[in-house]
Amino acid sequence: MVAELHQERIVLLAEAVQASVSGENLRAAGVAKGRALAAFALAQQRLVLHLMGAPLLDLTWDGGQARELDLAVVEHGLRIGFDAALLGEARAGRVVVLLRVPDPAVALAAIEQRRRPLDPRRHVRDRPDPPDLS
Q1: How many CA atoms lie within 13 A of 83 on its CB side?
Q2: How far apart, in whole angstroms, are the C-alpha atoms of residue 4 and residue 130?
Q3: In principle, which of 19, 39, 65, 133 could form an S-S bond with 50, CB 3.0–4.6 Å?
Q4: Cα–Cα distance between 117 and 74 in angstroms, integer?
Q5: Which of 65, 71, 60, 63 is nearest to 85 (CA)?
Q6: In angstroms, what is the C-alpha Rg of the chain?
Q7: Do 88 and 103 form a contact (C-beta atoms < 8 A)?
Q8: What structural domains and CATH numbers belong to the chain?
Q9: What pLDDT sits at residue 20?
Q10: pTM higher than the cut 0.90
């Protein structure tokens, strides 16, 4: 995974981060409640979160799902909340992961910058011709 992320230009990488998982109906979501070690990465193309070595989230910025995350900086780190449906169609419930990243405000700012919808790119050929000044 890290090699792929390096190709995608890593913005933030935090490995062996203390995390805690809580939420509603976690058993139906297929997620274990409690404390875990996490790996959290932000790349130019996606956000990746692994718990105890198993992938939990892998969302691309242009896929739109990253905008469904509830994010907040809290006293002990970065809180990421989401509907378990992001993990698979048959999953239900609410998952909340608290990551004890060193600087949660920086992580939140990096996520917000990448997950906002962008206007379509304009090409030179799409611009109007400049006025004739002769």
Answers
A1: 10
A2: 43
A3: 39
A4: 25
A5: 65
A6: 18
A7: no
A8: 2-117 (2.30.29.30)
A9: 93
A10: no
Two tokens at 102?
């060193």
- What is the C-alpha separation between 82 and 54, in angstroms, rounded? 17
> What tens digit of pLDDT does each residue of 35-78 get?
999 999 998 888 999 998 888 999 988 888 888 899 999 988 99
pLDDT in the model for residue 86:
86
The span from the CA of 92 to the CA of 7, in Å, is: 33
Q: In what order do the strands lie in the sheet with 70-74?
A: 54-60, 46-51, 34-43, 10-24, 94-99, 77-83, 70-74
Mark residue 51 as left, alpha or beta (left: phi above 0; alpha: psi -120 to 50; beta: remaining).
beta
